[in-house]
């Protein structure tokens, strides 16, 4: 139970969002409580969840929190709340109350400029819902996030979760043309615009991408969209790691234009019933003749290197969905998921490390970014893998893990020269440190 001194002025909040849009912690479904608790350090008390329905309500709620020393945990559907660091209340600043501010009911499609290939939405709209709407006019948003059925666009931006098709379309921040957000004082700010050719103002879109709700609460987003391609096909090569590395290098240096190029660890290959060895999975999406021709050329590369080479067409969507489910487990379990980065030409060697022999790993061949998934691993082994990634010009971030693991190590592991700049940015955007405090890089 929440002590009397830690209770909010619920009546005042009800005048902002209405009684039906506030849930006290003790009245929340236990499953939802568990989901939210994965983002909060132990012994920190959550008071309630508030669901603003308009940008004005969101602004007023944040202003109330700023005026009453309330800490805010921003969220959408909560599908990625278990990613990253843990919110911690700083007792020296007299923050006593934690409010979860959910944008799940800020879920409208504001404008779809079909001819301009842009769409403007509120942050709580679900990725799957938006894709279904865009598909009706032959368009799509070029992002392939984890938990695609439940993920919201605000959460995808906050966690910078692009997925495999970044090989062709680049990162999630490159899809973002404009943003509106509520500052930590409750005022609304904007960056970018609603057209593709836009150079006005600071590039707040890139700054907010991957900020995990520590700089402001997103209230509106404008994305570029693309036409749906005529055809799609996938080639899978499996075999000895050095030959997979050669095939990947040959592909990336060729004139072929895949939308996805992913390297798979041996155990992930086995989990997907693709054979034995390290895997390379490559997707082509364009006109049907080009898909067939490009796939044929890659199959020839695989055969020349004595790799097990397979072409998927009718059942390829099922294969990619199964791959995503394997590497990104649902939250609420004891498994550990890490985001990593290495120099691309060291990706195969990274996936062959002993720690991954019985676990799962995927690295995007073009960028060197990827995810690792472990059934069980010690903090000491995680730190050894982090040191390896750093020695290869990269990083290792612990996204999802049991609380006891996150409490034993720094989930971000970043201590480079950009940290001071990041802290100054946080101070400018959130001087009272009420937005998801101490959960980000360097305790930000």
Automatic annotation (TrEMBL):
Domain named FAD-binding PCMH-type: residues: 38-228
InterPro entries hit by this protein: FAD-bd_oxidored_4_C, FAD-bd_PCMH, FAD-bd_PCMH-like_sf, FAD-bd_PCMH_sub2, FAD-linked_Oxase-like_C, Oxid_FAD_bind_N, Vanillyl_alc_oxidase_C-sub2
Gene Ontology molecular-function annotations: FAD binding; oxidoreductase activity
Entry cofactors: FAD
Keywords annotated in UniProt: FAD, Flavoprotein, Oxidoreductase
Top-rank lineage group of the source organism: Bacteria
Protein name, entry field: FAD linked oxidase-like
């Amino acid at each position: 139970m929440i002590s009397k001194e830690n209770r909010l002025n619920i009546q005042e909040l009800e005048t902002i969002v209405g009684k039906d849009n506030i849930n006290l912690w003790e009245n929340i479904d236990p499953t939802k409580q568990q989901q939210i608790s994965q983002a909060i350090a132990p012994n920190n008390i959550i008071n309630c969840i508030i669901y603003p329905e308009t940008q004005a309500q969101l602004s007023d709620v944040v202003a109330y929190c700023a005026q009453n020393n309330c800490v805010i945990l921003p969220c959408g559907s909560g599908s990625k709340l278990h990613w990253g660091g843990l919110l911690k209340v700083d007792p020296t600043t007299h923050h006593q109350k934690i409010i979860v501010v959910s944008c799940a009911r800020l879920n409208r499609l504001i404008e779809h400029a079909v001819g301009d290939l842009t769409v403007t939405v509120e942050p709580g709209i679900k990725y799957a819902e938006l894709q279904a709407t865009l598909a009706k006019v032959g368009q799509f948003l070029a992002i392939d996030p984890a938990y695609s059925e439940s993920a919201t666009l605000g959460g995808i931006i906050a966690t910078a979760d692009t997925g495999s098709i970044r090989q062709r379309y680049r990162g999630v921040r490159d899809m973002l043309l404009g943003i509106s957000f509520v500052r930590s004082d409750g005022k609304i700010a904007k960056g970018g615009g609603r057209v593709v050719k836009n150079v006005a103002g600071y590039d707040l879109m890139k700054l907010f991408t991957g900020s995990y709700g520590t700089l402001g609460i997103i209230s509106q987003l404008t994305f570029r969209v693309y036409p749906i391609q005529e055809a799609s096909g996938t080639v899978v090569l499996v075999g000895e790691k050095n030959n997979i590395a050669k095939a990947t290098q040959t592909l990336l240096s060729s004139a072929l234009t895949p939308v996805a190029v992913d390297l798979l660890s041996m155990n992930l290959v086995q989990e997907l019933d693709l054979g034995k060895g390290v895997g390379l999975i490559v997707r082509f999406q364009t006109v049907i003749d080009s898909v067939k021709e490009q796939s044929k050329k890659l199959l020839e590369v695989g055969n020349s290197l004595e790799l097990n080479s397979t072409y998927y067409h009718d059942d390829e969507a099922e294969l990619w969905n199964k791959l995503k489910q394997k590497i990104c487990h649902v939250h609420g379990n004891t498994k550990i998921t890490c985001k990593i980065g290495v120099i691309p030409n060291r990706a195969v060697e990274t996936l062959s490390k002993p720690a991954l022999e019985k676990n799962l790993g995927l690295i995007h061949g073009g960028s060197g970014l990827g995810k690792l998934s472990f059934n069980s691993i010690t903090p000491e082994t995680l730190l050894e893998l982090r040191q390896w990634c750093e020695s290869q010009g990269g990083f290792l971030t612990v996204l999802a893990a049991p609380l006891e693991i996150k409490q034993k190590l720094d989930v971000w592991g970043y201590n480079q020269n950009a940290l001071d700049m990041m802290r100054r940015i946080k101070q400018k955007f959130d001087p009272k440190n009420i937005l998801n405090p101490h959960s980000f890089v360097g305790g930000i």
